[in-house]
Amino acid sequence: MTVLAQTDLRLDANAVDYVLLALYFLLVLGIGYLARRRVSTSLDFFLSGRSLPAWVTGLAFISANLGAIEVMGMSANGAEYGMPTAHYFWIGAVPAMLFLGIVMMPFYYGSKVRSVPEFMLRRFGKPAHLVNGLSFAAAQVLIAGANLFLLASVVNLLLGWPLWVSVIVAAAIVLSYTALGGLSAAIYNEVLQFVVIVAALLPLTIVGLYKVGGWQGLVDKVSGGPGGPEQVNSWPGNQLTGFEDNFLSVLGLVFGLGFVLSFGYWTTNFVEVQRAMAAKSMSAARRTPIIGAFPKMLVPFIVIIPGMVAGVAVTEIAGENKAALIAGDEAPSGATFNDALLLLMRDLLPNGMLGIAIAGLLASFMAGMAANLSSFNTVFTYDIWQTYIRKDRPDDYYLRVGRIITVVATVLAIGTAFIASTYSNLMDYLQQLFSFFNAPLFATFLLGMFWRRMTPTAGWAGLVSGTGAALVVFYLTESDTWVLPGQGGAFVGAGAAFVVDIVVSVAVSAVTQPKPAAQLAGLVWSLTPKEDRQHTATGEDAGWYRNPALLAGIVLVVTIALNIIF
């Protein structure tokens, strides 16, 4: 990889590219400075004072997920697996986003909790709350480290900066605006970053398709190369799941990815939920993930397709190199699938456009890491520090703690970046983390929200046992005791975590005491009045085009059509 990085991958950025990058950084820091003027309380810092419109929180919702791991990782998946990668969007994201907006946001927003772990505290008590708070904090530091490693690698390879300089400069910029302006700075920058990312990737996609003879030319080249015709159809996705049997592959995608991993991520991950909780009203909070689902449906076309183009048009990735990488061997060129997008940029983009593309990659990194930091500082401050270490302090004390812990989280992320560096495809790493942390949490949430009999003891016992089950599957696959190529290990681990969590929770609930029904109103579906679950939109929230159910229906129909077409 060193030979490739020093010679073939280095891009010839000139003064125009550097000016564009400098302007972008100044704009990002300026937004952070302006947002700081609106921060006077901890609620302003951690939840933007619950004052943002739905279109802002909706774009931030999707941008927070469109981090460097998403952009680079999905492009890598596109080069390795082809169109089945779209399942991460059309099966593994959109349905769960709609469920969050329609079913779960009334509970989150209506209860006025400040975080997902705080919801766990009210439903199950302190043991489950502490387990969830610690596991979430650990997950965010690990994911932030992956974002940081990827950006530092990109800057090192594209601009020639030493890796340690890249890490420090990139981390300092994100830390500056997140620590200054809190969630508002992160959200407004995420809206800007979404625009920049699209402006960078859309031209690359168009030029890439032109290079290979359009969509049909891409289909022909992918079908005739390593991986074969299976890579131009999203179903059944055997290479992605690692299952040779079509039925098992579809089952793994629908249950493992589409249900457990997807719902576990989108409905319980505070990184995403925090954006919706910053909205100015219940209607706006419910519309936030649904608005985000519209661009989410289209992201595959500007992320996966460039990866597929690189897989057939970039010398270091195509042909025998791709065959070797698919087989799990080192490519003769020294490249990995993680390099796919960078190599395509090298081959296709002129100066000026290169500066926009680099800014887009930096934007994707900063959106992802800022989301990790802003959610980490909220959960650590409210759910760990305030609850268990320093209670009943003045509000400005917790505001200071939030800013300090943002610095600490950044330093920790620099350390965890080295863990991410051991994976040749970072999406493999990310899916493993989701199977550990999100899948069992979703099982606990789902059961606890719809089954009033579930007890506080079952809440923490289910979480711990579910995570343990995922770790066992991870050990079996890593030791080759159970051979599951692709990302099948993460899918199976997520399914195991979900099932074990449910079984243990039901068993423990049968022999322990539940909370009184009076304490579960607003936390359990059957004990929450219908009017509290279905709010009537009035004033600026009125109008059929602001109806969450109608918007969700439109998204669902289009998503089904995309699954049929591709």
UniProtKB/TrEMBL annotation:
One function term, GO molecular function aspect: D-glucose:sodium symporter activity
Subcellular localization(s) per the UniProt record: Membrane
Spans traversing the lipid bilayer: 15-35, 55-76, 88-109, 130-155, 161-180, 192-210, 247-268, 289-314, 353-380, 401-423, 429-451, 458-477, 489-511, 549-565
Top-level division of the source organism's lineage: Bacteria
Topology class, membrane: Multi-pass membrane protein
One Pfam family hit: SSF
A cellular-component GO term for this protein: plasma membrane
Protein keywords: Membrane, Transmembrane, Transmembrane helix
Family indicated by similarity: Belongs to the sodium:solute symporter (SSF) (TC 2.A.21) family.
Protein's name according to its UniProt entry: Na+/galactose cotransporter
